[in-house]
Amino acid sequence: MSTVKSPPQHGFPHSELHARHERARIAMTTAKLDALVVTTPQNIRYFSGFETQFWESPTRPWYLIVPRDGDVIAVWPEVGKPALLASTPVGDVRSWSAPTPADDGVSLMAKTLKGLARKSGRIGWELGREMLVRAPRIDVDAMAKASGLEFADGSPTIWGLRMVKSEAEIARIGVACRIASDAFDDVPKLISRSDTTRTAERKLRIRLMEKGADHVPFIATAIGAGGYAQIIAGPGDAAMKEGDVLFFDVGCTYDGYFCDFDRNFAVGKISDAAKRAHAACWQATEAGIAAARPGVRFADVFAAMAKVLTDAGSIGNNVGRMGHGLGLHLTEPPSFMAGAPDVLAPNMVVTIEPAIEYAPGKMLVHEENIVIRDGAPEVLTKRAPREMAVIGG
Amino acid sequence: MSTVKSPPQHGFPHSELHARHERARIAMTTAKLDALVVTTPQNIRYFSGFETQFWESPTRPWYLIVPRDGDVIAVWPEVGKPALLASTPVGDVRSWSAPTPADDGVSLMAKTLKGLARKSGRIGWELGREMLVRAPRIDVDAMAKASGLEFADGSPTIWGLRMVKSEAEIARIGVACRIASDAFDDVPKLISRSDTTRTAERKLRIRLMEKGADHVPFIATAIGAGGYAQIIAGPGDAAMKEGDVLFFDVGCTYDGYFCDFDRNFAVGKISDAAKRAHAACWQATEAGIAAARPGVRFADVFAAMAKVLTDAGSIGNNVGRMGHGLGLHLTEPPSFMAGAPDVLAPNMVVTIEPAIEYAPGKMLVHEENIVIRDGAPEVLTKRAPREMAVIGG
Which residues of A touch B130 (CB under 8 A)? Predict the structure, then answer.
């Protein structure tokens, strides 16, 4: 099994991490924030380079502070201090022995926040859209009270930074896309008609790892006669049937960065209606890619895709949008949807994801990952075939 | 590659899920809560059986309400409605087209909460220890305001329910433990001296999948001469050296339930000091297992392990505790630590995890997973060997 050739080494140079802090300082000045506090795996990794799978343990909260003035500070459980110091440029690590249920970093955080250079007295936390705070709410409330500072929504500031990718970030998303493209190519021979979706998904997951994926945090597996009713769950234990469409949506990572795209496979002969719907989805993807230029609104790219699907007789879909940003998360803002105010800019990485429901409960979804460039976008995924590949074919 | 024999089918019978609701209703009465609202993957799965990897997408919030009076209600993005209805007993699904940034379920949640039978006016959310709210904080604040209800900390109530496992839950943890035990047995031949920790970890991850793990959300990989400085991060790209100890801590899942245990492997000949420390850890594990009886305090089991390690010359460790609960999460309360007030009860599943630091930066950690039973506990993992297995051996 060949792995993807010469992917970049794991880990970012410290210069890139420092450049992120510099951009953050400028953004904080605009947003009138004295600091950003991040608690979630992706945001902590974005600002520090820290990687772990220990996020699976909800026991200890972790806090990374990016001040407008001064160096990054980690308020950090002792168990994570050696790894942070050894693998990141963060030098100011203030630790406590966690878990300590009576005071799990609360007084240490309050003290640290009070010691920051103050201008607005506002601290940006992950309070808003497409974010969450990975710490007990009662602790964060206690810190707000003890520090006397205003905890404001830093989400728009953070997404503003993460939305436009560096070339090093794009390279990593590109590796993930190539790994999944190669694995999808193998599916018709890897998977057989005697597989259930569960055994099929397991084979694909292992193949993605063999091809070089670090992790496979997301596979959705759907199946149904000529289409499917949903695209977020699965797999199951049912047998495949002639005429089914088997759908995989894959988010695998390389060095923390996701791909997010799907492919459809025919189980034997599919209906002509399913073939026509598949062709319409393929054309809608073309229209989306063609429309995706810097300065264009996300809503207009959505409209370009929607027109192709409506003309082909779509009765709608339940996905709620037709693509989104992509990076350290499987899905990031902005969204391709009606009314979206956002505008495409160079170095945004986005998914083009049209969905057609051509009969009740019969949906087909396509997806490709692209980078917005001056002029035409760069397609990171190996474009889906115009006609579905056949399982066992 | 043989997979673990006859694991239980995926998914719980609805009777078990209804029994969980019944226990929750009793606990809510005690805690004076009108409902629990859960937003995180594990708690939603606990109360509904809903499974997806779509949690990787932070875009949409999902709310499951367990009322003290009445059936479970899902306030749910449309994209997830078909899968919820098809795979769980939840029948009351109130959906909106998400994402809708201006009102992503906020007004629908406020209306739904206001419609619940009211006694205390208190709604339990995941606000406390070892929990988080997986929804934008600004949305939850808006719901509190719009509903006029008190949002209280439901975490102790939820952990109280989850802490004691059913036999069906224990069976699933047992499968995960057998899968990882089998994979660890393969390590000495699977991994060679020419592997880096990164290539070694990848081989182990694939082997775990081949043995039947659904997912491998957690592997920590550490290495060092005779011991290691940390146990939460890794892998890296360095070569193995004679005398190194290679450490893997594995959390793989079967039907949503984790194992969590580690093993140490020798690279060639390790020092006598490392051998003695390993033997002390092994004995401390014996002492922990022997002490783990119903009615015993977590603090006393900790003391039993700590005594063996102190007698062996331990200078401490940075882990902060020596084991914890285990289930839908890699780590759950309670913790084995000094001062812990909790008491062991039958059907708790816990990890026994002594750690010794026998010289600065040289730590060794052992771990086994057990079920508390009347009398001696049931050990779910295949006990670690007294002497470290040798890589390439």
Answer: 58-59, 99, 136
